[in-house]
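Re-run requested by the PI after the first attempt was lost when the workstation crashed. Everything re-entered from the original request form. Ligand of interest: adenosine-5'-diphosphate.
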Amino acid sequence: MRNATPVPIACDLFIGGRWTASETGRHIDVLDPSTEKTIGSVADATPADALRAVDAAAQAADGWAATAPRQRSEILRRCYELMVRDADALASLISRENGKALCDAKAEVLYAAEFFRWFAEEAVRIQGDIGMAPGGASRIVVQYQPVGVALLITPWNFPAAMATRKIAPALAAGCTCILKPATETPLTAYAVVRLLAEAGVPDGVVNVITSSTASKVSNAILEDRRVRKLSFTGSTEVGRILLRKAADAVINCSMELGGNAPFVVFDDADIDAAIDGAMVAKMRNGGEACTAANRFYVQRAVAAEFAQRLASRMGDLVVGDGVDPRTQCGPLVNAAAVAKVGALVDDAVRKGARILAGGRALERDGHFYLPTVLTDVPPDADLLGEEIFGPVAPVVVFDREEEAIALANATEYGLVAYVFTRDLARGLRVSERIESGMVALNRGLVSDPAAPFGGVKQSGLGREGAHHGMLEFMEAKYISVAW
Ligand code: ADP
């Protein structure tokens, strides 16, 4: 190990406040994508282990729901403080198991911690409603109650933030939960849950299980009628499978799925700001983000300049081991990711795209693909229709505003879009017409715990963050009162 980490190198499951081996005693290896070396292992849960986690969450549910909101708030606030205290150690752990550059990992930890601070503040602002029925016979009293035991399934690209974005609102609302992180990056989830225990989260309120058979353990959990909520972040494909499964037990679902974000630059844009925004929107996390700019549509008069300047900035990035502090772009998560990105670039080039920067994998240990800019990308190139999830920026020229909107909307996804223009009226007009849950206008970043994050179309259901994020873990109770 090159850095101290707050977790042991081998982690058992965390169920009912205790570290416990899986039924079979089997483990899953965790690899460093920078070196392809094994850095640790986690227990491999079976469906029976998963049901033990449901037992623990169900037993803790009434007690946690009855806790005073102020008490939940103060525990969440301590979670925030402990994450900030341990930010460096957590960041190096994230870099090692995910590969992302240390600067990205540090930013992730602080972003992840902010969910605890935000929902600590929201926990004491659960408000209901009271009104007179139109007929005058009764009062309509509405109060919000925790939905119940929640299954939280998270991906590998933001191992800390995707967990806290779900755990914090669940706990603020009064729900108990079972977190199932991705097998690529499970150590971070166990590190976070250790901090939660230290912060005073009672036993059984947050349980963590890891498994090499994600579908079997999640099916067992979703078939248990004590489980009332599924919050999932991952691919649209897996999201659809889980929605089908959740339908059988009519489970309340929040789904953050794939994206294919357009990045639209009008010829009146501040090009310096657009380039800076593009670097963030494309290269945060090395492009492994569902919010990553996937398609760059640039108006003709500024297209050549934009593409050249973007290529020069992308070509200058320092590519290297995630944990090396000089690194600006780490490896992709695994070999399959490099193969997928390579195939998408090769397809575009075969169909006529020109490479302005990068365009190939690095010949060394680890899963590295060079930051890449493509221009003259033809409309039928696969990477315009698919989530690239890597450091590749395809640039396409457009002429008219209508055309830019049509191109931006020509996707089944609708998570986020980026728009750059100095004309605020145009910016707002275009933002309203783009089919996405979020728009960044003259910025390269939308993520903020205080804002409702989520998509439309095939990008998902529900919102995380803001007050909306907590309502996903609550249900309205209507009491009709004769007074
Ligand atoms: P990604 O493409 O980012 O790896 P996935 O959708 O494959 O996203 O995975 C996101 C999360 O969903 C991970 O925790 C993974 O283990 C889990 N997962 C994958 N397939 C299934 C499945 N069939 N049922 C339940 N969970 C799954």
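Saved to the shared folder this time. The domain at 13-257+459-481 is CATH 3.40.605.10 (Aldehyde Dehydrogenase; Chain A, domain 1).
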